[in-house]
Amino acid sequence: MHVDVVSIFPEYFAPLDLSLIGRARASGTLRLAVHDLRAWTHDVHRTVDDTPYGGGPGMVMRPEPWGEALDALAPPGGTPPRLLVPTPAGVPFSQALAHELASESHLLFACGRYEGIDQRVLDHAASRMPVTEVSLGDYVLFGGEVAVLVILEAVTRLLPGVLGNVGSLDDESHAHGLLEAPMYTKPAAWRDREVPAVLRSGDHGKIARWRRNEALVRTVARRPDMIAALAPESLDPRDRAV
Ligand code: 6GU
Known about the structure:
Structural class: alpha/beta
Keywords: Cytoplasm, Methyltransferase, S-adenosyl-L-methionine, Transferase, tRNA processing
Number of helices: 8
EC number: 2.1.1.228
Distance between the termini: 42 Å
Strand order of the largest sheet: 2-1-6-5-7
Helix content: 25-40%
Protein name: tRNA (guanine-N(1)-)-methyltransferase
Bound molecules: 6-chloroguanine
Largest sheet: 5 strands, parallel
Family: Belongs to the RNA methyltransferase TrmD family.
Main location: cytoplasm
Number of strands: 9
Shape: elongated
């Protein structure tokens, strides 16, 4: 997968050299390039923002540097990337969207700061590439940079060969519309607290049932919205008893 990121703070992306994302980059699974938006300014002050038309607080990113950046990284006539614009006004990011993005060959992230990017940039881009404005949740960040780190981590771990244990993609939280059951490791007793006996029983049927119950109880308590969204046929009679 090829990923371009445009930001006025390229230093934010230093952590992408670390850990499993760093390894995916080193192996060539992830080809990632971070670009400084100011490379596409032409004035001595390398201006990227201005006051909003219609008034109001804060500043808006001017369209000219963004237009040049998108022309350079998504040349007209070439195979267009999918443009992702992190903004609290976007569609909610989710594991389903992470899977969708993991199947793309080229992603281009445009990180806005201040009150956002002049809307004409996104409208113009949409005439020649798919554009998705995406939000991490109902809170406001200074800019899109941290959101891109989050999205890239969620997407990269879905790329073939990035996770050592592919099975861990299967029963993790959000894989089946439920939160994951609690997990335990050695020692069996720690500070007077014991690992639930069923997990040490060796009875795989009982363990699977216990985990399913714990997942249901947790999801009811923490994410009633996820329970409401479950397909009724995904619950069996033993689930209903929980
Ligand atoms: Cl994606 N960007 C910004 N700036 N703020 C956010 C967000 C994104 N998601 C939630 N808040």
